[in-house]
Amino acid sequence: MKSSPLRTALVLVFCLSASAASAVNTTDTRFLNQPAIGGGHIAFVYANDLWVANTDGSSPRRLTSDKGVEANPVFSPDGEWIAFDAQYDGNTDVYVVPVDGGIPTRLTWHPYTDTVCSFTPDGSEVLFRSARQVFTRRYTQLFTVPVVSGFPERLDLPNAVKASYSPDGTRLAYTPLGEPFRQWKNYRGGTATTIWLYTFADHATRMIPQPEGRSNDTDPMWIGNEVYFISDRNGEFNLFSFEPDTGAIQQHTEYTDFPIVSAAYGDGLVVFERAATLHTYDIETGSVTDVTIGIATDLQELRLRYVDGADFIRSADISPSGARAVFNIRGEIVTLPAEKGDPRNLTLTLGAHERDPVWSPDGS
What are the tens digits of pLDDT across the range 262-273? Predict the structure, then answer.
């Protein structure tokens, strides 16, 4: 069968220039996200792959290279393993991999999405969230799965998203609902993110107090007798702590320009992402250190390549004479002949997204 002119013409080249590709900073790379810390290492996600580096940012290594997305790394208490969720086989499931590298071990097999939260204090199980037992999938619940072998078991909490065990394993700090502030900054509606403390022995719960007018509290980290977390209660997201015995809340960082996006605890440090870079906060001294990490990798999404534009047609219009048609293809405005002729890319602006082309009445 002959290829139609439209199909043939839509196999177009969209690529970055060599100068743009060479502009990637390999000594101080930005947009490293979802950091975790433990065992003298920092784990993070970059370009949808899992990486690990020394605590000072030196010697970064890529641990995964799958085409799917790897996310939410968490260190085991001994710092020798990293739990994370990945899409190796299409679905998002829980995996563990040694810090030194190796073949990841799959722990969950349910068709619903499973997302890693933390390890249990003894390191024998991984805590994750899933909607696998929720008919409507409107919320998620917490489950534990053994690292060695076994089936997931659900915690008694009716719904939860993020969670952190107390050091002795008798309590849990968790967020019951999702994070609407990720879509609506300064959200103060009825589902604003809150942190609750749960006691396993008697199922008692207690919410970390919020200011008048509400706030968004998330990323709970149980450190000693205190629960550290990030909150926008005083403006931008900063690092706070709550002492259950006294009810005292203390603010530890004072950022007013860019928020703390995510945070995790290990090795006496809180590692957090802010302003497209990673930082560590020393619990003992209260000092913040910028972590410089340089990534040198192939960056598949930035390399020169051919793509099939036919899969990314967003809108179209026909010229008054019917001789040509105009399409929005992958953010470019391209005209194509009805029968014979060449495609014409009218915009060729790789750094912008054009859309909704319309032909003038006179066809000019």
Answer: 999 999 999 999
